[in-house]
Each structure stands twice: as structure tokens, then as C-alpha cells.
Amino acid sequence: MWIPWALAAAMMAAPQSAEKQPPLSQADASKLKNPVPFTKKSVAQGRTIYLRYCTACHGADGKATVDVVADATDLTSPKLWRHGSTDGEIFRSTRDGAGDSMPAFKTQIPQQENLWHLVNYVRSLWPESMRPPLAEAGPSSGKSK
């Protein structure tokens, strides 16, 4: 299947604007690999984005205990997520929206690299046993390839 590979390769090229990309299917999203290493720097960058765009519905702690959106996802419990918890599925839910209450953020966060930093931050909210190991910070850490 060349389409998912081509789509993944196109999505990982840098820099790209997310708003120009067609919506992903959940099947294609589940095959995407995060091109941004899971580093402290990436998590910090993702946290900045999260605090700006996500706290109104998911809360500062990611537990979705705010009363704005009744069915906002508790980001600290990935086993309960309805739209998938792979890196690609988190990317898709953020970029393209998910369900009736999760809007698309591709116009507010147009750079795909920033969406991947946000994916890393969301994964940092998971129970420690479920988080990916932190990658060593190097000269290319936090940059799309």
C-alpha cells in the first residue's frame, strides 16, 4: 500500500502547514509515526501549546474536570479514549477534530511540528508506566525530519 506510506512521508516533511492537509482517516492516522522525539524540550513546547489551546476544555491538568464541555476526554486516561491513543490518532484528533465536541485545531496550530510537540505533551500526562521513555536531547531533537 503506497498511499499510507506516501501520506505519512508527506506529513513528516518539514515545514508543512496542517491546514493544507486533507483530513486523515483513523486507519491512516493509526499508522503515522511521530517525527518529533519525545524529549523534555518537546514536551515543554507542547505544554505551551496545550496551555494556550486546550485547557478550556481539558483543564490545566488534562483531567477534563472543567464544566465547559460535558464529554471532554480525560487526557490522563488513554485506555478510555474513543478516538485512539497512538501518536497518529492523537495528531488526527487535534488537527482534524474528533466527534461532536472536539473541534479541529489545524487553523489555530498550522505547523505540523507544533502538533507533534502537543502529542508529546499529551503523552506526558499519561501514567508513568504508559509513557514513552524520554529520548536523549541532541542537536536534532524536537525538529521534524
Describe this structure in words.
- This protein is mainly alpha-helical.
- It has a single domain (25-130), classed as Cytochrome Bc1 Complex, Chain D, domain 2.
- Helices cover 40% and strands 0% of the residues.
- The protein has helices at residues 2-12, 26-31, 40-53, 55-58, 87-96, 112-124.
- The chain is globular.
- It starts with a helix and ends in a 21-residue tail after the last helix.
- The model is unreliable at 1-14 and 141-145 (pLDDT under 50).
Features:
single chain; 145 residues; mainly alpha; Cytochrome Bc1 Complex, Chain D, domain 2; 6 helices; 40% helix; disordered N terminus; disordered C terminus
Task: List low-confidence stretches.
Answer: 1-14, 141-145
Number of helices: 6
Following the backbone from N to C, one meets helices and strands in this order, namely HHHHHH
Helix content: 40-55%
**What amount of the residues lies in strands?**
under 5%
User: Given this structure, which CATH class is correct?
Assistant: Mainly Alpha
Please, how many domains?
Answer: 1
What is the total tally of β strands?
Answer: 0
Q: For the record, give the distance between the C-alpha atoms at the N and C termini, rounded to a whole number.
A: 22 Å
For the record, what is the CATH homologous superfamily label? Answer: Cytochrome c-like domain
Mean pLDDT: 85
Provide the CATH topology.
Cytochrome Bc1 Complex, Chain D, domain 2
Coarse shape: globular
Largest sheet: none
